[in-house]
Amino acid sequence: MSRSNSGYHHGNLAESLERAAMELLETHSAADLSLREVARTAGVSHNAPYHHFSGKNDLLKTLAERSMAELVASQRRSLEGVDPNEHLRSMLADYVRFAVARPHLFAAIYDPTICVPGQPTPAMAVLIAEEEQLLSDTARDARPELPDTRAFAAAAWGLAHGLAQLAQVGHLPQQAVDAAIDAFVVR
Amino acid sequence: MSRSNSGYHHGNLAESLERAAMELLETHSAADLSLREVARTAGVSHNAPYHHFSGKNDLLKTLAERSMAELVASQRRSLEGVDPNEHLRSMLADYVRFAVARPHLFAAIYDPTICVPGQPTPAMAVLIAEEEQLLSDTARDARPELPDTRAFAAAAWGLAHGLAQLAQVGHLPQQAVDAAIDAFVVR
DNA sequence: ACGTCATGCTTGGCACTGTCAAGATAGTTG
DNA sequence: CAACTATCTTGACAGTGCCAAGCATGACGT
């Protein structure tokens, strides 16, 4: 895990902690995640994290940013189709896929107790703006005739976000999600 | 708050606790809600709740059911328009309004740590089915020509749910939500 | 080579939480 | 009035986030 493990002076604890927390977030929710357990799995004392993060929320904020960056990158990658409608469809499907695959990380991104609502981290603000731009561009290409592209893009984001939540909870199976996206994109 | 307050034997603690928790959920999230604080605001000892609920989650489950019932009732009420499109629009707007007005209660309804995913309370299952039917009927009236009403209804639910989340977080102002709903309903 | 020192991690402690166990009290029934 | 049960209490335990203080370690000036 770490390069030099000679009792004290771990080497790069910050990264080890992030890694450990990332793993734990695959089974625990952000609220259920214990900073002490993160420290334990990283093999350090319960207070070591405080020398690298100002607290539990700070660590979570870092992970949320990391995750959002991954999501945006994934969204950018799913733009490589040809048909604009297919662009939009695959982007939305990809959004839902990400949320279902990493439910707790996805939740952390939008968790008001981590990034206070309307008070996003600078880095997070940039990422959200990127995502918005990505969606807006895709929406414009798919519906060039619409006067208000922003509204359509907002609807697309809302749709993807909501389907993601409903799918996470087990209310919508994968196939229903795809059908719903189709119903939104196709006309 | 209670009828007979003679030291012991509160009278109707269960309801008082629910009321207290309901109030606290206006400022605290479900995870941040302390059962002990609920007991405190109800004026009883920290262990009294355990004689009426099996634990914190049980109380939250009850509140989530209560809230979902309220939401469904509200949705049913917003069906009183005339134009089918207007039906749909007002239903979606109402869904978002509810979520924004009571963010923590709304979150509790879909919180996997309260109602385990795919394991809803019987009462909750009924309410969800009702909501689904309500949306499905409205969707059919608004788009009778569509072959797959279920997919369109699922999209509508997803849209409302996602817009609600994004609005809660402060990402979408009210007017953007309305515009997005319009973009979805109108064609 | 050696003392000095800041960095990074540790132990210890505090107030808080959810939950279990056992005791006290009050209304009910014989 | 005695026994009983429902209801609420106090007490305890393990766990949490976080603050304060102490100790090990490697770097640096001399």
Structure description:
The structure is a homodimer of 187-residue chains. The first copy, chain A, has 187 residues and is mostly helical. Chain A has two domains: 1-53, Arc Repressor Mutant, subunit A, CATH 1.10.10; 56-185, Tetracycline Repressor, domain 2 (Orthogonal Bundle), CATH 1.10.357. Chain A contains eight helices and no strands. Chain A has helices spanning 13-24, 35-42, 56-77, 84-101, 103-110, 122-142, 149-168, 174-185. In chain A, helix 3 runs parallel beside helix 6 (122-142) and helix 4 (84-101) runs parallel beside helix 7 (149-168). The longest helix of chain A has 22 residues, at 56-77. Chain A is elongated. The N and C termini of chain A lie far apart (52 Å). The A-B interface holds A 29, 31-32, 103, 110, 112-113, 117-118, 128, 146, 148, 150-152, 154-155, 157-166, 168-172, 176-177, 179-184, 187 and B 29, 31-32, 103, 110, 112-113, 117-118, 128, 146, 148, 150-152, 154-155, 157-166, 168-172, 176-177, 179-184, 187. The structure holds a DNA duplex (30 and 30 nucleotides). Chains A, B: Keywords: DNA-binding, Transcription, Transcription regulation. Chains A, B: This is Transcriptional regulator, TetR family. Chains A, B: GO terms for molecular function: DNA-binding transcription factor activity; transcription cis-regulatory region binding.
